[in-house]
Write a structure and sequence with these properties.
alpha/beta, eight-stranded mixed β-sheet, 36% helix, Glucose Oxidase, domain 1
Length: 609
Amino acid sequence: MTLHSVIDAVTDRIRTRSHDSRAAYLASIADMQNDPDSDRRSVSCSNMAHAAAAAGGDQDDVLAMADKVKPNIGIITAYNDMLSAHQPFEKFPQIIKAAARSVGATAQVAGGVPAMCDGVTQGRPGMELSLLSRDVIAMSTGIGLSHGVYDAALCLGVCDKIVPGLVMGALSFGHLPTIFVPAGPMSTGLANDEKAAVRKAYAQGKASRADLLKSEVSAYHGAGTCTFYGTANSNQMLMEIMGLHLPGAAFIHPHDDLRHALTVAATHQAAAISRQSDDYRPIGEVLDERAFVNAIVGLHATGGSTNHTLHLPAMAAAAGIELTWEDFADLSEIVPLLARVYPNGSADVNHFHAAGGIGYVIRELLEAGLLHADARTVWGDSLADYASEPVFGTNNDVVWKPAAGESQDPDILRPVSDPHSVTGGLKMLTGSLGKSVIKVSAVDASRHIVTAPAKVFTSEAEVKAAFADGALNQDVIVVIHTQGPQANGMPELHSLTPLLSILQEQGHKVALVTDGRMSGASGKVPAAIHVCPEAVAGGAIAKIKDGDIITLDAVSGELNVAADLEARPLPAIANQAPQEGFGRSLFASLRGKSAPAEQGGGVNPLINL
């Protein structure tokens, strides 16, 4: 199938825009590959003994690690048992080490990275560390790989900031082939719609805390990724469509025998594409402009998380590639929405996988010319090999069969010829407030344009207090500023979703405008998020006053205020919280240097290229 002209044009302008920085990046990874210090044989015997001292007491493994010919695989793990999705990683290193040994390679845990659960920290001080933890994870990955004794890497991570951080860190050692190894989703529990209904009932005082806790525990009930299609599961889709997983690995349950077999297969493949192989596939070359365009297309086609309008630019920057929200917006206009998974529908990711899953989506997009089929991957000859699903062969090894020819449930998954929507669910808004993004895939078309008076707040807590006092029982656009990357680390404002949903269901015109962010589970209330410039950087959002009439128009892509904001002086920002305690003071330097939201927030690696 011929590549769609818009896909071609957007890719070309990204390539042109990024020419110098990408060339500098590729030169840097070539230097690392050719540097004698990256050859284990240049490591002194004493230093090598340190690297191999804990190799399980197996003298053969120790000697193999010192042998350049036999690949040594570094494992970067985000294991902890705070995150249900990461708990299964506890036993993965032993599986990987045994699998490596079976093909004449070795493996060792090179390092661990922090992994926080946004589901625990929502609305609490810890959430102010969340986005910036992505940069800490990237740096931690770099530290783990810094010993210079690895020929390939396996990254164990699933959730929100963890996968983007691992990608950024791995790209800083872009000469190493790297495969991402997922853990899979938990089994289906309480239906997402039922969970949301209990949350709203609790916000209205119609359900007790005991009722709420029972509901939440029923929804989040075991090991594996949360089953709604938020940032964590969007990450897994991205790793697949960007060619960093083995095909079909994303949504196999943690305790499924196939999950174990895929982990073994990923280890074997890491050895097969290592620096010592004849099929060398460094991650810095695999992730080029085509891979990032494919990622954005996949995000649109599946109704993925708004958080990736932050993460994908940051990940791309680590590879010397500059993405803009205009790239997202232009691709959204030509990519159809093929999947409806909660919060964009009632199904969860297990239902999505059973209906045909990512392999089906990739095949449909490839046949429509909406993906770069020739993009490099860690497996097979091209992305076409990812239009498949793994199964057990006759010898109990993993084999791949073609993806389902038809959707098994059209309410969840549809072909390009009959999509849920002819365009993707993510748009860019521009106007008198600057730039922002909005996810409309779950928003009813009757609410794509909202005009209402503003109510201005400087914290999530203030909005909750106003709701409790009945001060929001009207048509209202809730404006929350001083929530951007430089202000307080850009915490998610997801806990406002039930409150705003209640107001909307009461018949009010409701929307949210903020320089902060919502969860990857952004849902049915129109929300213009990631407004930049942010308030503390002189953004116009800081000038809005109560009663100003705001129009959010997701059809024309505009966000405007019916007031002369240029004539208003920029107010002194009174909500510069001291951010003492709860670890926040440790992140002051990262907050102060954070890039604008369009560049991903946090530290932008492009500034060093």
